[in-house]
What we know:
Layout: H1 2-8, H2 11-32, H3 35-40, H4 44-65, H5 68-74, H6 81-108, H7 110-116, H8 123-148, H9 152-176, H10 181-206, H11 216-226, H12 229-241, H13 243-251, H14 253-291, H15 293-319, H16 322-329, H17 337-357, H18 359-364, H19 367-392, H20 394-416, H21 426-448, H22 455-476, H23 478-493
Helix pairs in contact: 2-9, 2-14, 4-8, 4-12, 4-14, 5-8, 5-11, 6-7, 6-8, 8-9, 8-10, 9-10, 12-19, 13-14, 13-19, 14-15, 14-17, 15-21, 15-22, 17-20, 17-21, 19-20, 21-22, 22-23
Amino acid sequence: MLTGTRSLFSGRLSKIFSIYSLGRIISALVSLFLLPVFTKVLPKTEFGIVGILWLVNPLLSRFTNLGMNVGVYLKFFKLDHKTLSSYLHNALCGITLFSLLVWFIGVWKIQWIQVIIAKDMTRVIFSLFFCSILFTNYIIMTQGLLRMEEKAAYYVIMTILPQIVTTITTYILIMYVEKSYTSYVLGMALGSCISGVIGLIYLFKRYPIKYFYPSSSILKNLLRIGLPVFPGTVGGIILASGDRYVIKYFLGLEAVAVYTYGYRFAEYILTSLFQPFGRALGPIILDKAAANFEEASVYNSKIIFASLCFFPLLLSAIIIPFKDIMTLLGSKGYGPSYLIYLISLFGILLYNTSQLNGVIFNHLERTECSMIVVLSGAVMNVGLNIWLVPKYGIIAAAFTTGVCYLFMLSFTIFIVNHFISTKISLFRMILRMTPLLFYLICIWYLDFSLQGISLWQTYIVKLGLFCLLTITTLLIFPEGKEILIFLRSGYRNGNQLFQS
């Protein structure tokens, strides 16, 4: 058992994960810098439009790349360098040409864009916004190949650079030029263009264009792999953010701003923990699966169960001061965002767990399985939001999204179990998340229902709840016991937990 825990958190995985985690934390802090600017300086309607842009940007980005970036990544371990280079440049050409076509249609039918995003969006602002989308695709392609190459430090640089440029530019424009969403569009355009050019320079140097030859068969192969990913990816974005459109339609842009503020905090925290882990784990699983699929699937399952004991503890510690942090960074009228934050945390944990389980689909090139899962969840989410948001407001949007994430996790495990011989237990997986759910309910009760206790007394109770959650996790669950035993052993032997 002890050896198993040691081998799971191997030096290769822990080193890459550490770099990704550091990068994600820096990325989240840079992005969070703008939140108080949005909440305190921008009018709520303008921040509501920014919330819509956070949905439309990834939607258009995934739409214009047609999933061809995924096709390139999945060929990384299967093709020689020369052939892979040709695949890459065919994908870049296809993405660029299709993006220009979409941009032309958007400029031609600008009234469509005004309905989707903002009534006062001009062709110039849309062109700047679309420029950021095109160059974001180049950044995404570069980041994906850096992941496959396990160049985590370079990946982090390509992640942080556009955010730093966007944040600085947006801050200056909002504070000194115009308090409008257009300042954010200009910041995104500048940040994406600078980083996208750097990404293209790297790609052309690492994968020489001399190996490029236009090939319809290559494009068809990329689209065969990538197109099934596209509906699933778009469905995932709609699942995560489509509720903002429902809120906008029924409750208005100010309600979108309040909802976005709470959801964004939850998203930053969960992605700071799980996204680096998934990005470090993915290439390792694909590499192992190329040698032995069953061994890779068992390894992936054990890693996920161990992470569901470890990450909730980190998450529960981070939650303790967040009501006061959100109050400090927000302004009057953003009070309901905290409950959105608490509900969304558990939902996004379910979603990320589902994504980790679905990595097996990538090796099998059965991307249509991911598509089916995500689209099913997206349809359910939109339907529940249309039904419940008019009656119960933005709280219903956060709750229904969590319910749909639970459905997706169940559906994903059901499908994965058809491809592997060692079955994954959904019950055991949910059981490991149950203590965190009770912890969140207790935190909510403490922050909203208890009256007449001081701030320091509140923090003492929260710390006590955290200690109880930690003890429960480490002593009840097998993975927790392994971690505890290994920590004791590591302390005596001068070793560390995440070291092979």
